[in-house]
Write a structure and sequence with these properties.
- This is Zinc-dependent metalloprotease.
- It comes from Nonlabens ulvanivorans (Persicivirga ulvanivorans).
- InterPro entries: DUF5117, DUF5118.
- The protein has 9 helices and 21 strands.
- By secondary structure, it is α+β, with helices and mostly antiparallel strands.
- It folds into 2 domains: 198 residues, no CATH class; 139 residues, no CATH class.
- The strands form 3 sheets. Strands 1, 2, 3, 4, 5, 6, 8, 9, 10, 11, 12 and 13 form a 12-stranded antiparallel sheet that branches. Strands 16, 17, 18, 19, 20 and 21 form a 6-stranded mixed sheet that branches.
Length: 420
């Protein structure tokens, strides 16, 4: 009897050990990280990475590009400006702005969402109606990025995402505009002929250049290729934490303005509120007393227009003079030297300078037969603050000016008959 009990005890003990081993094995299997999930930082951003620090840290590891996003910048609003930097013949001109979107980065579990923010319909956060406005303006998700790694230190909790596909694949809002796709019968992106050229980070913005090739049955030129290739430029700039104070629009004064549907007014109705797009000109702290006394002072930040290096030499001094002639208008507001013109730096002086960079306002010289000029600008949708402005000078604009000069003055000015 004693022998039987001892044998049973041994059997139970062995079975228990086997069960325990199976349980431990199963537990180990459960703890194995999922393939493609969050990895150790050094496994993703290796020692061979080429890193560029700025708004985000941008890493290049072989042919992949990564953003390292500080947790302090999640949910901060940023502006994405998309331009065609270089274009196919017959498709317009390089530097033309295609799209502007307000974006914010949001962490959601093991993903980072890039969301599109709208400021067209608003109500003050302190009002109950703001909840209804928010529920009717759900922010679209432009793109979702799986988190690749997390870098933790005593200050930040940085999240690493892979942005390679975002710039190399077909994301319509940062690529070829829909109207142009329709016109030239562009059907799809050819990924084998598309790639990221550069991705650079600066203190307040990130600049990307990527080449896109689309299959097209009716391209504007080089029809034998059956495709359109162009170089896109994307500038993503951090918007000010505190928006500039608005200046409301008055219909008695002509001005560029933007509008919002405001549900938070005292009247029980929605009204369109319009406010101006304008430069932020502020008095330096040390000059406030002089300013109040009526003395002209220079602003904290001047408006600077750079002259495109492509501009023919004979026109540069006149373009500069035309820009700085506007200083008189700003003097009426109490500022001297508020607007100035400057030559664009050479590659030796600043290899990173680019006319597509949203930090710089540029007088662009365009190789276009159209006799025209225009002045598009980029502004903060929350306040109307102009962040950057370009003046597009078309090559044939002198034809237009000559014709105006003749038609408007020829009756009393014989000099206008001579061709310029």
């Amino acid at each position: 009897m004693t022998l039987l009990v001892f044998a049973a005890t041994i059997t139970t003990s062995c079975g228990s050990q086997k069960s325990s081993k199976k349980s431990a094995t199963a537990g180990a299997e459960k703890k194995k990280p999922k393939k493609g999930g969050i990895q150790p930082y050094t496994k993703v951003i290796t020692k061979d990475a080429k890193s560029d620090e700025g708004l985000f840290t941008v890493h290049q590891v072989e042919d992949k590009y990564f953003y390292e996003i500080p947790d302090s910048l999640f949910n901060r609003e940023m502006l994405m400006v998309t331009r065609i930097a270089k274009t196919a013949s017959g498709l317009g001109f390089g530097g033309g702005k295609q799209n502007t979107e307000t974006l914010r980065w949001q962490r959601k579990n093991d993903n980072v969402l890039l969301r599109v923010v709208s400021h067209q319909v608003v109500a003050a956060d302190s009002l109950p109606v703001s909840m209804a406005v928010e529920n009717s303006n759900f922010e679209p998700i432009l793109y979702s990025f799986p988190i690749q790694a997390i870098k933790k230190d005593s200050i930040n909790n940085n999240v690493v995402i892979d942005v390679t596909d975002f710039f190399s694949k077909d994301v319509p809002s940062i690529g070829f505009p829909k109207r142009s796709r329709t016109r030239y019968k562009a059907t799809r992106l050819d990924e084998k002929r598309s790639y990221i050229d550069t991705l650079r980070s600066y203190p307040l913005n990130i600049e990307s250049r990527h080449v896109k090739t689309y299959l097209a049955s009716s391209p504007p030129s080089n029809s034998s290729t059956g495709s359109i290739s162009l170089e896109m430029s994307n500038s993503m700039i951090l918007l000010p934490k505190e928006p500039m104070k608005r200046r409301y629009f008055d219909q008695r004064v002509g001005w560029f303005a933007r509008g919002q549907q405001d549900y938070g007014l005292d009247a029980q109705e929605t009204k369109t509120v319009r406010y101006l797009d304008r430069w932020r000109l502020e008095v330096k702290d040390e000059d406030i007393a002089k300013f109040k006394a009526g003395e002209l002072v220079e602003p904290k930040k001047q408006i600077v227009y750079y002259i495109d290096p492509a501009t023919p030499q004979q026109w540069r001094k006149y373009i500069k003079q035309g820009i700085e002639d506007w200083q008189v208008a700003f003097e009426a507001a109490g500022f001297k030297n508020a607007i100035i013109a400057a030559d664009a730096p050479t590659k030796e002086e600043d290899p990173d300078w680019s006319p597509e960079d949203v930090r710089y306002s540029v007088v662009r010289y365009l190789a276009s037969p159209i006799p025209n000029a225009n002045g598009p600008h980029v502004s903060d949708p929350r306040s109307g603050e102009i962040l950057e402005s370009d003046i597009n000078w078309y090559h044939n604009v002198m034809t237009l000016l000559r014709n105006w000069f003749f038609v408007q003055t020829a009756a009393i000015n014989r000099c206008s008959i001579n061709r310029i």
